[in-house]
Structure formats: C-alpha cells, structure tokens
Specification:
It is a multi-pass membrane protein. This protein has a single domain, classed as MetI-like (MetI-like fold). The protein is built from 13 helices and no strands. The C terminus is likely disordered.
C-alpha cells in the first residue's frame, strides 16, 4: 500500500514536467534556430568565417532600406488603426450579446484562424479585384471602377482583413470582464450614455485596445503573404525584402540582419507597452498595479 502511494506521488510530481516537455523542446529548437540565424547575420558575406556588424550597418545606412522599413511600419500602423477602429464596435457588440450569441460569434471568429491564409487572400481578390463584387457595386452606383488590388490599397485591405479577428478577440475579452455596474452607476448619476462610455467603459477597456494594437502591429509589420499576393510585385514590405535577399539573391547574412532588426523592434515595442501599462495603468485606471 505504501509503495503504491509513493508511486502515485512520484507520478503526480512528474506530471507538470511531462506537460512542460513539449514547450521546453520548442523553446530549445527556437533558441537554437535564432542563435544560428544571429551568427549568420554577423558574417561579412555569405559563407565567410569572419564575423562583423557590417550587415547591420548596411541595413541601417542604406537609404532604400530605411525607406522600406519606414513604409512597412507606416502600413502596419495604418492597418492597426483601422483594425482597432473597426474591431472595437464589433467587440463591444459581442460583449453585450447574450451568452449563447457570444459563444457563437466568438466561435465564428476562431474558425477564421483555421481557414487557409492564402485562400482568404484569393477571396479578397475575388471581392475587391478589377471585376470583383465591390467594383461591380460601384459601377452600378455610377461611381466607377476603383483599383483596390495589386497596389498599396490591396496590401492595406489584406492587412486589415487578416488582423481584424485578433483585434476583436483581444478587445472583447477585456470588455467581457468589465463590471457593468460601473456603467450603470454613471448612468444613474445622470451621465449620458456616451459620457458614461467615454468615462467608464473606454478607459477600462484600454488594456485590450493596447494589447490588440500591439499584436496587430507586429503581425502586419512581419506579414509576408499579404504583400506577396496582394501587392502585385509593386509593394514591398520588410518580410518580402528579407525573402528576396535570402532566397533570390542568396544574401542570407543581409536577410538575417534585417530579421533581427525587426525582432529587436518587436521586443522593444513589447517592453514599452508593458512598461506603460505597468507604470501608468493604476493612475489612469486601465490596468491593475503589480503586486509587491
């Protein structure tokens, strides 16, 4: 009997380590891959043994590379703004819906993550292409045909369409946890609905807005499929430039250096976001203070 108890205790103690094993394996492989890529970014030229920061200097000193990174950041920022503006009302509607309707709508959003990404982009081409549904409606209204694909507009539409579910899910999760009695109390004190929303609901939902915006921005900044398919070869972003350098031009060190610059920018952005929410969250009522 005692041996059985000891065996069960041993198994129960080993369960957390067994469950963590896949995550540990993933972290090891990812860390190893990043280490190899970082070493490659330090090579003076492809296949060279000498290590240097020359690739980083070339990326940050070349005017066309700076312009490329700036355009990528601007497109990602614009797509983030549009996704947040469009996603907030939908997220608010989901949070106010009945439990059954909420589960149905959230399930529909989650299903979009399981659909093929490339097929979704081709679907956008069918809708917003030259002879797509959107242009047919515009022609019927007498507005005329607009070029909405295979240019910057197409890339922006694709970025918004692909990132909108992330924004909705993040914001709706925070809105669903807000105590509705605070909004009701503001209304009882005589505040109009819009004033109660601006004073109560909006500040309390800012962690979701900021978190969703950061996720969407990073996804858009590192997007490859959207500019490759919807840019028509005329719009280049950071990810497509990295692919061209590494695969087409066989300049892996340069592409690796660009990759680590993007990774560093993402880590800095995450650190700034965490600092803002942690330091100023309690002051503005948008996040709890850290426990000490």
């Amino acid at each position: 009997m005692t041996s059985e108890r000891i065996g069960r205790r041993g198994i129960s103690r080993a369960v957390p380590y067994i469950l963590c094993a896949p995550a540990i394996v993933l972290v090891v492989f990812m860390t190893g891959a990043l280490a190899v890529l970082f070493i490659e970014s330090l090579r003076v030229e492809p296949g060279a043994v000498e290590l240097s920061l020359v690739q980083y200097r070339e990326v940050l000193s070349a005017s066309h590379q700076i312009q490329l990174l700036t355009n990528s950041a601007w497109l990602a920022l614009l797509a983030t703004f549009i996704s947040t503006v469009l996603g907030y009302p939908v997220a608010h509607w989901i949070s106010e819906a009945s439990p059954r309707t909420r589960v149905l709508l959230l399930g529909f959003l989650v299903l979009t993550f399981f659909s093929d990404y490339v097929l979704r982009m081709f679907g956008l081409i069918l809708v917003f292409g030259r002879n797509g549904l959107a242009n047919q409606i515009l022609m019927e209204l007498g507005i005329g045909r607009l070029r909405m694909m295979f240019n910057t507009n197409g890339v922006l539409i694709g970025l918004v369409a692909s990132s909108l579910p992330y924004s909705i899910l993040t914001i709706s999760g925070v809105l669903g946890r807000i105590d509705k009695s605070q909004f009701a109390a503001a209304r009882l004190l005589g505040a109009p609905a819009w004033r109660a929303f601006v004073s109560v609901t909006l500040p309390l939902s800012m962690p979701g807005v900021i978190g969703g915006a950061v996720i969407v921005f990073l996804l858009c900044l590192n997007s490859f499929v959207v500019p490759a398919l919807l840019g028509g070869g005329f719009v280049q972003m950071a990810a497509t430039a990295i692919y061209e350098q590494a695969i087409n031009l066989f300049n892996l060190p340069f592409g690796a250096a660009m990759s680590f610059i993007l990774l560093s920018a993402a880590l800095i952005l995450l650190a700034i976001t965490n600092f803002v929410l942690d330091r100023f969250g309690r002051r503005f009522g948008i996040a709890p203070a850290r426990r000490r």
